[in-house]
Amino acid sequence: MVWVGNREIAWCPGCGNFPIRTALESVLKELPVPPQKIVLTSGIGQAAKMPHYLDTNFFNGLHGRALPLAVGIKIARPDLTVIAVSGDGCNYGEGGNHFIHTIRKNLDLTILTHDNKVYALTKGQSAPTTDRGTMNNLDPQGNENRPFNPLAAAIVMGAPFVARGSAGDPDHLKEVLKEAILFKGTAVVDIFQPCVTFNHINTYQWYKDRVYRLGKPLPDRYEALKTAEIWGERIPIGVIFRDEGVMPRQSDRIIFREPPEDKALGAMLSQQHFK
Amino acid sequence: MELNLLIGGEAGQGLASFENTLVDILSKLRFRFFATKNYMSRVRGGHNYHMFRISENPVHALSGDGWDIVVALDRESEQRHKPDLKKGGLFISLEMTEELNKQAREKYGRITAANEILSGVVLSAMGCGDGDIARIEGDSLDPVRTGFSLANKWDVADRYPLSTRAGNHYRLDGNQALAIGALLGGCQFMAGYPMTPSTSIMVYFAAAALELTVHFEQAEDEIAALNMALGASYAGLRSMVATSGGGFALMQEAVSLSGMTETPVVIIVGQRPGPSTGLPTRTEQADLNFVLHAGHGEFPRIVFAPGSPAEAVLLARKSFELADRFQIPVFILSDQYFADSQQIIEEPLDTGIIAREYNVYGSDYRRYAITENGVSPVTYPGLGDALVRVDSDEHDESGSITEDLNLRVRMVDKRLAKFRGIRDEAIAPTPMGEADADVFLVCWGSNGPIVKEAVERLGGEGIRVGGLHFGQVFPLTPGMIDRYGLHRRKVVAVENNATGQFASLLKRELDITVSGRILKYDGTCFTVNELCNEMRTYFRKV
Ligand SMILES: Cc1ncc(C[n+]2csc(CCOP(=O)(O)OP(=O)(O)O)c2C)c(N)n1
Ligand code: SF4
Ligand SMILES: [Mg+2]
Question: Are B353 and A73 within 8 A, CB to CB?
Fold first, then answer.
């Protein structure tokens, strides 16, 4: 059993989720908002347990559905800081449709995905980001599908903030997370997360040998798209694309605790009222 | 006295705009009417028809006694509906409507004037003259007068004089009634994905969002829609979704999420004939079992099925209050017939918006505190020091995942304990006809007003029948029906499905055995006449 403070944590010792948790915890503490004003949403999976290990509000929902929950919360309460955090299976597989359409909405929220290239909670099957040829109990001959590139997809969908972090570089990850959460608009962050139990290829060392930090984010979408596609001996992490020019869709209209007035509704009803 | 009118034609020939024109004029002149339609799932062509029953008395169903006027905008309408013209009725043929269109174009320079001319023909048949149409404004007035002279020419003027009219009233279709009820219930958030017959609820809500502090969000699919609604509800807005069977199928897991996380939400399921895509624009009541059993696992729920727009306003309003009070999903079953029928409501509506509370708690707040009645104190993120932690896994009182199996049992018991309070709130069915009759018709949802009129008509013929309309179909409690002694009577269920789902529910919940089932599942509603015939046959057999 692993304990952090007085909480028992259900992750394997050495799991990449731990450094991500530590980074996120310290970013949340540094935010200019109290924990009561922060809501994490998550789905189901190992990564999706994250909210349970942080001191803030959360709605731990269904597998694949962290994003529509976040959308509902953010629309209802623009005053809250909303962060969806889940695994690659959750956000890109079961919830892939929501990934596309949540980005299109460009609400001011953050989408974090722990990319361990595996369905960990269900014990090791291929995720959308799993490399071709990877073998597991449901792909005994090796996975035949091309991996999903979440960052390229996010850029193409028009996400104004697209970044990658790595659990193996926690200081850098912290900076990326903070920038993402403070960004005004939908921020997409894919986080390399070694799964020490089920993924024996994409290990800490594997990432260490390949990952390099990007400098300043690229202002040009097409350049960013090229960067998002770099894969192999060298893999970039950092903010790949950042577009300040796009205003989030959100209006500042507050409707929470502002029910319609009887009079206004009465005026609407008068169209159907005949005297 | 009443006038029954049918107008048939192809999709795209302007039947819907004629309906709107006529009902607008009827409402302004305070005539009592009921209007419904039967249409195909296509945008052009095919065969659609709209039906109107205009009467001196309140009317909330199709009589089924034949048509006084049939208007055919194509040959198919003539073939199909002319045989149902009553003796002495007026048939307005394709050629006659062409004459009408010609006048619209030549006199008024717009084809839409044809709707007003035809409305004028109908008004004249109802006994209206120049003195009666002062409330019709602007451009419409003259075309209506042209209709008067056509009515004279066609010898239909004053044939169905309607002397009494309604007082103050609302004119609503079923979906408008549901949307208005939701707004009155304090609903501020709706997410949806278009699907017949529920789309117009979304349209109404989206329009309301321009005027009121409410929000409509079009979701990428129904899964997202219900999850968004649950997110908004968690964050502090009363929320709802509306869909039909297929979309509701996609919502299942989130229904269960509402049950587990105790997040209130109202779900409107507008039924249409299934299975699968079925008959997309027709009516049926075959999703009762589906809604009763929706979502995996065990959790409390309430299911309403309003019969009239007035009841829809009332029950939709109440749904939000109950969803909130018990922190549960509340379902409203409607159907295409109900959704698309326009009628007038003469009873007063309670138009005050239900206020809600926003309680503030300290840092020791636990979202799932175990209480005697199963209801935990609720608050929303950002109020006070409380953290609101909500989990779809089995959880402890503070919302953290647990696999403590003793706690699991206590949490199940806590959630199900809410059923006690829910059962105490059960809304009794509406009685009709003779309270001490040997035979009782039972129905639910949109069949309510049809059964009511049938029971009254049979009573008038000396056939003694009673009836009960269930606006609340689940839970069913003995207290709801005690006074009717149903166990001693012959109970006949009237339903728009092939198996008698409500009849089976009555057996399961209240041990009532029905002795007859009058079922219809051809995609159309019952008419009063049809139901009376079924009952006469039933009485011949017993
Ligand atoms: C609707 C549904 N399908 C399947 C599952 C089973 N399931 C739970 S987690 C999971 C995959 C988890 O993978 P990922 O999201 O990548 O999270 P990880 O465990 O790798 O962090 C699956 C398939 C479920 N809970 N719900
Ligand atoms: S299975 Fe993998 S992802 Fe899950 S806790 Fe263990 S190491 Fe981490
Ligand atoms: Mg994973």
Answer: no
Give me the residue label for tokens 């008038």. Answer: B460
Is the confidence at residue A241, as pLDDT, over 70?
yes
Q: Give the ligand with the smallest distance to the CA of A203.
A: 2
CA distance A59 to chain B (A): 5
- pLDDT > 90? residue A207: yes
Give yes or no for residue A245 having a pLDDT over 90.
no
A235 lines ligand 2 (CB under 6 A): no
Q: What residues of chain A lie within 8 A of the CB of B261, using their CB?
A: 59, 61
Distance from CA of A135 to the nearest CA of B (A): 30
Domain extent listing, chain B? 2-153, 171-345, 358-425, 430-541
Residue of B nearest to A253 (CA): B213
Strands (E), B246-345: 265-271, 302-304, 329-335, 342-345
Taking the mean position of all CA atoms in its chain, how far away is CA B89? 31
Where are the domains positioned within chain A?
2-272
Under-50 pLDDT residues of chain B: none
Instruction: List chain A residues with CB under 8 Å of B398.
Output: none
- Residue A3, SS3 per DSSP: strand
Instruction: Confirm whether the ipTM is greater than 0.95.
Output: yes
pTM, 2 dp: 0.97
Please give the CATH number for the structural domain made up of B2-153.
3.40.920.10
Q: What is the pLDDT of residue A251?
A: 67
CA distance A157 to B418: 45
pLDDT attached to residue B142: 92
Is residue A252 predicted with pLDDT exceeding 80? no
Q: Which atom of ligand 2 is nearest to the CA of A16?
A: 8
Q: Show the beta-strand stretches assigned E in B183-288.
A: 187-192, 215-218, 238-243, 265-271
Q: Which CATH class is domain B430-541?
A: alpha beta
For the domain made up of A2-272, give the CATH fold: Rossmann fold (3.40.50)
Are B208 and B176 in contact, with CB atoms under 8 Å apart?
no
Q: What average pLDDT does this structure show over A229-252?
A: 91
The whole-number pLDDT of residue B270 equals 98
| Parallel, antiparallel or unpaired: strands B67-72 and B169-173 | unpaired
Query: Does B430-541 match B171-345 at the fold level?
Result: yes
Asked if residue A4 has pLDDT above 90, the reply is: no
